[in-house]
Specification:
- By secondary structure, this protein is an alpha/beta fold.
- The chain has one domain (60-210, 235-391): 3-Layer(aba) Sandwich (Rossmann fold), CATH 3.40.50.1110.
- Helix content is 43%, strand content 13%.
- The chain has 14 helices and 10 strands.
- The chain has helices at 2-38, 81-86, 122-125, 135-143, 157-168, 185-197, 214-221, 223-230, 271-289, 302-306, 314-321, 332-343, 351-359, 374-391; strands at 73-78, 94-99, 116-120, 147-151, 175-181, 242-246, 252-256, 293-299, 311-312, 347-349.
- The strands form 3 sheets. Strands 4-3-5-8-10 form a 5-stranded parallel β-sheet, with helices on both faces. Strands 7-6-9 form a 3-stranded antiparallel β-sheet.
- Strand 6 (242-246) and strand 7 form a beta hairpin.
- It is globular.
- The N and C termini lie far apart (99 Å).
Length: 393
């Protein structure tokens, strides 16, 4: 009987200790969560590559609409831009490091001189994939040359010409690749023109840009939330403009589109095209004066490349069919080809290479992003590398 009493008392003591430890852990966690909640919001909600998230842009110079902070460093899961817009998770999000050099460009080390530089926009800066997977980095490996990334998200040819002047020439490159985006460069040329005519006011409201509440910041820091996220499925909302794509392994992917070709992608008669032509002509003069070979690279919009290989609802296709038609004659590709032939600049249109890869069931754009995947960057790097190898013979 006494042994039973001792055993019972021992069990009660163990239970008491267990409860006490649990309460202590809960109270300790609560204190940690309260401290984390009280810390002023400083964490980036998203990759600062998306300049709307805050922290990824600095005030403008006299010439450029905005710049990036020097020596910026961010690590984390980078959601696609359409996941950010839709405020949902991205099952394809990758862990990346977004780092800038002393001039605010995406180079993890200082590169004072380079054999080849690339100017362009978000397709070149490519903050949504690891730096070593970008076509700029891959080009350096393929060609055994020092390359430097001077791309910046949100720029268009007017700003990129200034980048060439202010940052590119001093690198003493032998070759400049100038990447142009079919999707948004023409309308953004008009925006830049309006900004200049308005007297170059602040391009962003830095007082509110990407500012988080204490609650939003706490959710990023909270160990409890992080533990919960480990065991839950990604929260993915519907996206109206999407379809299904099957890769070479037979896996089905939901592919989101942001834009379909329409009047903003028509160059003929577009005031943005007049500004773009002017910038390219001036850029060619600058390169010739410095004995630099200039190459124009057109990066096609996602829909142009993937639409034939993605199952899209008929009602969406009917809506697209009612939009103004972009043709080989009035589109950016045709007009760039004509301009480059006229002034003697090699022109690379990446559309066919990316389409051929998509036809062979390669996923060349990230499903929840408007930008290229690592596979897409590999194709672009090989395309430029092959061109340079042929051109040098």
């Amino acid at each position: 009987m006494a042994n039973k009493m001792v055993s019972y008392s021992g069990k009660k003591l163990i239970a008491f200790k267990t409860i006490a430890i649990a309460i202590g852990l809960i109270l300790g966690l609560l204190v940690i969560e309260l401290v984390l909640f009280a810390i002023p919001p400083k964490h980036q909600m998203d990759n600062p590559w998306y300049y709307e998230s805050g922290g990824g842009v600095s005030s403008s110079s006299d010439l450029l609409p905005f710049e990036r902070p020097s020596n910026l460093m961010w690590e984390g899961l980078s959601r696609g831009d359409m996941a950010v817009l839709n405020d949902d998770d991205d099952p394809y999000a990758q862990y990346i490091t977004f780092q800038t050099d002393s001039d605010g460009f995406r180079n993890s080390s200082e590169i004072p001189t380079a054999d080849l530089i690339v100017i362009g926009d978000s397709f070149t800066e490519a903050g949504n994939i690891p730096e070593e997977d970008t076509y700029v980095s891959l080009l350096g490996k393929k060609l055994n040359l020092q390359t430097k990334n001077l791309g910046r998200s949100g720029y268009t040819t007017t700003s990129e010409l200034i980048v060439l002047h202010s940052y590119g020439i001093k690198c003493q490159p032998k070759t400049v690749v100038w990447q142009i985006a079919e999707s948004n460069d023409l309308p953004e040329e008009i925006q830049i023109d309006e900004w200049i005519k308005a007297g170059k006011p602040p391009y962003f409201n830095f007082d509110t840009l990407g500012r988080m509440s204490h609650f939003e910041s706490w959710k990023l820091r909270s160990p409890t939330i992080k533990l919960i996220l480990l065991f839950r499925k990604p929260h993915v909302k519907d996206w109206p403009f999407s379809g299904d794509f099957v890769d070479k392994q037979g896996k089905k992917h939901t592919i989101r589109f942001l834009l379909a070709p329409e009047k903003n992608q028509i160059a003929t008669g577009n005031p943005g095209w007049a500004r773009m032509q002017q910038a390219i002509r001036y850029g060619q003069d600058v390169c010739q004066q410095n004995d630099i070979k200039l190459i124009i690279l057109l990066m096609p919009m996602k829909f142009q490349v993937m639409n034939e290989y993605v199952t899209i609802d008929d009602h969406i296709l009917n809506q697209i069919s009612a939009l103004p038609k972009v043709t080989a004659q009035n589109g950016l590709a045709g007009n760039l080809d004509k301009l480059c032939n006229e002034i003697g600049i090699p022109f690379i249109d990446a559309t066919l290479a990316l389409k051929n890869a998509t036809a062979s069931k390669q996923l060349v754009y990230l499903p929840f992003d408007t930008h290229l995947s690592a596979e897409g960057h590999e194709i672009i790097a090989q395309l430029i590398s092959d061109f340079l190898a042929t051109d040098s013979k």
